[in-house]
Every structure is written in C-alpha cells, then in structure tokens.
Amino acid sequence: MFFYFNFMVEPIIQRDKYNPKGKISAIMVEPIINIKFKEDQMNSKIIDKMIGIVGEDWVVSSAKEVESYIKDETEEAIAPEPCYDCIVVKPRTTEEVSKIMKYANSEKITVVVRGGGTGCAGAVVPVKPSIILSTERMNQILEIDDNNMMVYCEAGVTLFDLEEEFKKHDSLFFPVHPGDEGAQVGGMIVQNAGGVRAVRHGVMRNHVKGLEIVLPTGEIIKTGGKLIKDNTGYDLTHLMIGSEGTLGIVTKAYLKLYPKSSNSGSLLISFDDKKSAIEVVPKILKKGITPLAIEYLERQFMEKSADDLGLKWPAEKGKVDLYFILDEKKQDDLYEVSEKIVEECEKNGAVDSLIAETYKEQRAILEIRSHGYPSVQSQVVDILDVCVPIGSINDYMDGIEMLSKKYNAYIPSFGHVGDGNIHNFIITEDGTKPENYEDLSEEIFKLAVGLGGTITAEHGVGKIRNSRLKLQYTDKHLDILRQIKKVFDPEDILNPETGITSL
Ligand SMILES: Cc1cc2nc3c(=O)[nH]c(=O)nc-3n(C[C@H](O)[C@H](O)[C@H](O)COP(=O)(O)OP(=O)(O)OC[C@H]3O[C@@H](n4cnc5c(N)ncnc54)[C@H](O)[C@@H]3O)c2cc1C
After folding, report:
1. Distances in whole angstroms, Cα of residue 273 to Cα of each of 53, 293, 480
2. What atom of ligand 1 comes closest to residue 244's alpha carbon?
3. CA 283, CA 275: separation in Å to the nearest integer?
4. Which of the listed residues 75, 88, 111, 120 should we mutate to test ligand 1's pocket, taking the one with most ligand atoms within 8 A of CB?
5. Residue 343 and residue 294: Cα distance in Å, rounded?
C-alpha cells in the first residue's frame, strides 16, 4: 500500500465574487407593490443620502448591475420584479454601516445585508425594493494574534482570503470550510456554516468568540473578545450566530484558530450497500478516530458527475463510497489511521479501498465530488439539508428509500455522513416540481424531525423553509423567537420575511 500525503485536500469552489448565475424561471414571492420607494423622487433622495455616506463610487442603482445582487445560489428563491429598483450600497467602515442603518430605520426603509451571496436558502433575496448593504469592501484581516490563537477581521473577508492568509502562516489555521470560498466571514457566522470539516472541527458556532454588530437602529455593540470563557449574562454572540442577517449586521469578528497539521490524505472506500457504509461511520468515530471529513457518495450520482466532466470515477466495485479526508500531525499517524479505517470498513463489508496516491488522483476525486450538484443542476427541484443523529442515519435513509418508492421520485443523496447531514436531491427529468412535491418533502421533513433531527443543518431557513418551521417548533417557541426579533429590530427593516421570523 502506498500513500501520498503531502497536501491538504478539500472540496473547493473558487469563483468570481459576483457572478450572476441562473435565469429567472419562477416567482417565489408575490410582488409587493406598496411602494413609495418606487417613486423616482424617493429613489433619488435615498441614492443621494447613500452617496453622502459612502461616496458616489459605492452606490449601485442600475437594474442591470442590481440584478446580480438580488439572488444567491438558491434556484427557487427569486426576487419579485420591483426588486430591480433596489439600491446596492457598499460601506467601507462600521461607522458608515451605522449611518446607513440610522437613516433606514428612521425612514423605515428595508435593508438586506449581502455577504458573498453563496447562500443556499435565498436569505439574501429581497422581497421588496430595499437597500442591499454589501459588505464586500469590509475585507481587512485586522490582526492574527499568535499567543491567543485568534484572528480579528472584518465581516467581508472571504473564506478564500482567510485560506490564503493562513497558507502564509506556519502554525495556525481556521478550520471551518463550507464548499464555496466566495462565502464571507459575516455570512458564515450568521448562517452558522458547517461544511465537510465539521466532523472534526464542528461548525462556526464552535469558533466565534466575539463580534462587533451594528443593530438595525444603527447603534453599535460589541460582544465577547479574545476569551475562552465569558459568562456575563445572555450570550448575544451566540444569538447572532445562525440569525440569518435578521438581528443585526456583523461588522467584525474574533475567530478561534488552531494548530496546523501538515500530513493530509484521502481514502475512497466502496460498499455494496448503503446500510453497511453508513453503519461503519459511528464505529470508526467510537474508536477515537476523527477524520477531517467523512462524505457519503452514491455511485450513480458520482458517475454522472464524472461523465459530465469527461473524467472517470476511480472506484469500480460496489455501489456506494465513503470518502475520508485525513489530516494528522505525523506521517506515521496518517498511515496508522488509514489502516485502522480500512480495517474497520472491511470488517463491515467494504468491497474495495482506494488510496489516492497522486495529487492528480486526489484532485480528480474532489472535482467530481464538488461537481455532483452542478452536474444535475438543471434537474434539481430541491436540495434537502436535514440533519439527524449519526446513529439514526440508516433509519432516515430507509425512510427516504420508502418515500422515493411511494412517490415514484428519484432522490440521490450525498454529503456529510460524519455529522448526520446527508443532502438529498429531489430530481426530475427537467427540474420541474412534481405535483406531489409538497407532500413528499413534508414527509421527508417529518421523518427527520421524528428521528430527533432538524429541517436544516447548515443552509438555514432563509426564504425556502419557512413553511416547515412548525414541524420542528411549537407556537410558544416561535413566539419567543419573534419577540427577540422585535427587541433587535422594532421597525422590522432588516432582512424581512427571512428565516425564523418570517412566520
Ligand atoms: C457550492 C456551494 C457549497 C456550499 N457548501 C456548504 C457547506 O458545505 N456548508 C455550509 O454550511 N454551507 C455551504 N454552502 C452555503 C454557503 O456558502 C454558506 O451558507 C455561507 O455561510 C454563506 O455565506 P455568504 O457570505 O455567501 O452569505 P450570503 O449568501 O451573502 O448571505 C447569507 C445570509 O447571511 C446574511 N449576512 C451576510 N453577511 C452578513 C453580515 N455581515 N451581517 C449580518 N448578516 C449577514 C445575509 O443577509 C443572508 O441572510 C455552500 C454554497 C455553495 C454555493
């Protein structure tokens, strides 16, 4: 057995910051035609005010340019037509953000905060003409504090920038890595982003130690800091994490850093059936082996992706693969961990194991894995993002199989099996919603919640899961969340009709 373990491997998508994607094919929310904002005079008054705050170069108002700011990666979340009248404003400093919010609050103008626009739940998609507050210019890494193992940065720093910065650093790194490196720190915080490395490192919530926040009223507050312990009252840092841009605008953040491991590699292990592949995951974790990532990949799906790219999926035997990304301090540890994983998988019915030996092989696997979604994009009706306890994944997948038969639906799955978050794709030949889609997806969400799971693990509620919230929370629970929103945003101007407060 030969190993080639010299570099870090991750599913990576790098892309232009604001690359408009997809065409408008449906209207998700009814156009809301209220609108004094639409009157030219009002529009130009707001534009003048914004220019006064950030300068002429940083206000965008032409419908053509605005178009790329009113969508994210969510096919089904489409801004209604009047949203082409939105204004994009790009502040550079916290003080500018504060001035924008003070003005918007006093005039009751809706504001939608926009980070990298890589969200998968339509949270950045406006529902009416609004100020789109883009954090793209707030992109400075302010301090890397080696002793405290923290980075202090502005909210608009992209994941790509962060990764590049820590490539230069010999000993520290930031571990969270959702698949699109265009995501920004602020977006990752309020979405509580996860990604493949969550098996070992958890999600954003585990690493955010302090925040600077501009409230919807324009006031500025600071929470936490370079602290490991802080027990002073309600924890507003954690309230902001996962708030989907509805409670305030994150302008700066303290993030925890970790020592780098320099020996990385990957394993692809094949099974004849889903059950055996999924069953082995908790067995490996129980042995104290915590790979950086454990991904579940259905063969048919990966072969389609490989085909699309003109590549060949390297595994031939079996029908399902587990993809392990390993990252250890010493090369010997890497060998030992790999052998233990292969051994445990073989005991559990693995029919083949492949160690990606060359950089080319590893890149090919990653490329095919990352292309899974794009390869079926035009046929995707929905990408589900539920999470169930790791020990219940097989019950969940049995349920999915039963429902796909009941509804005659094709539901391939892949994703983060190491943390219970397998993504199920509902696919039709041409991507149109089948008549029974609502019933099917409702049954899937009920299945997940019934197993102690959640309707969304990392993509958030945004504009596409609102109607399902009641499956998971009681009326009282939802009421408390609504009250919290009111305290932060009494005029309901920030990201309205988004996430948890949309009911
Ligand atoms: C190919 C691909 C793979 C992905 N893989 C993963 C994955 O594995 N795991 C995962 O968790 N996610 C994944 N995502 C989703 C996405 O990358 C994350 O949700 C990310 O955290 C969004 O960050 P963003 O800056 O793009 O936020 P946006 O899409 O710009 O915004 C998302 C929400 O955050 C709010 N927001 C943005 N910045 C701020 C701020 N400074 N203050 C307050 N609110 C703000 C917005 O108003 C909106 O409500 C993936 C996306 C793509 C396209």
Report:
1. 60, 20, 44
2. 49
3. 13
4. 120
5. 16
* pLDDT averaged over every residue in the chain: 89
CATH numbers and ranges of domains, the chain: 36-137 (3.30.43.10), 141-259 (3.30.465.10), 263-370 (3.30.70.2190), 374-459 (3.30.70.2740)
Pocket test of ligand 1: the residue of 88, 190, 466 to mutate, having most ligand atoms within 8 Å of its CB, is: 190
Separation between Cα atoms, residue 258 and residue 169, nearest integer Å: 12
Which residues, 6 or more positions from 15, have their beta carbon under 8 angstroms from its beta carbon?
A: 180, 181, 182
CA distance 440 to 442: 5
Per-residue pLDDT band for 357 (boundaries 50, 70, 90) equals low
Q: Is ligand 1 within 6 A of the CB of residue 126?
A: no
Give the whole-angstrom CA distance, residue 153 versus residue 138. Answer: 9
- pTM (2 d.p.): 0.91
What is the 128 CA–ligand 1 centroid distance (Å)? 21
Tens digit of each residue's pLDDT (9 = 90 or more) over 301-311: 999 999 999 99
CA of 159 to the centre of ligand 1 (A): 11
Helix (H/G/I), strand (E/B), else coil: 28: coil
CA-wise closest residue to 218 among 85, 109, 294: 109
To test the ligand 1 pocket, which listed residue (163, 180, 241) has its Cβ within 8 A of the most ligand atoms?
180
Q: Which atom of ligand 1 approaches the CA of 250 most closely?
A: 42
The residue whose CA is least distant from atom 44 of ligand 1 is 245
| Structure tokens belonging to residue 489 | 């945003």
